[in-house]
Amino acid sequence: MRLHLRRREEKKIASIKNWTLIYGRRKTGKTTLVKSALKYDTYIIIGDVNNAITQSGEIVRIEKALEEVKRTLKNGGIAVIDEFQRLPEIYWSLIASWAPSGILVAIGSSYGIVNKVFDRNSPLLGIFTPSEIVLISYEDVLSQLNDPVLSVLYRDPWIIPFIESYDELKKRIKEFSLVAKGLIGEVFKEEERQLTDLYYKILLTLGEGVWRSKEIAGIVQREEPTITSMINKLAKMRLVSKILTLGKENYYKVSSPPFP
Description:
42% of the residues lie in helices and 15% in strands. By secondary structure, it is of the alpha/beta class.
């Protein structure tokens, strides 16, 4: 399904006036937001430690792509570096030397990149400001779809091209579970972690509605402190939502609405 949902974050992206690091979990619509709302002059994607992809789709060496970014910034333009977490840190000091010329927008699909960029030893510290992109707000989706149930599912943008109704999701749940596991694995990879069977069992258990860490520990047969620690790590990756309660326990749930 081809559908562009307007988001309240578009105004924030369109009005960027300084070097900005846009970050968030994979598939929350960061790239789509930047492409639709920001009037940039140069756009590159970091493919791996050696290569980048230009706006025209050409694969070039990272050094060549960064030269184009530099020219744009020196001319007072706006440049975008997507998948910034893949850029080797050896280039960070070089990029820092271009500031404050132009506006550089870096898009990072991990939360680990935030800690690295804003670390006290980072050459980029004091140059970028952070801007987090999370799931689409329910109000934004509902105002455009007028479908309360589908609006909950469409909060997570990755599901939009695949389904047009909740019934369709139910019929295809097995294939989407495989897609979801692949996306989760990609999140772990970007966070420099490994999606182990235990992490996946915890996510499945949370998806079934079990939210107490003690109960989850019993189901997966591990010590509760270990499970609590792992759930908190999942929360830091925004795969799990951690909600405070009036009691001593936290309420945990899977963040992605299609798989509550």
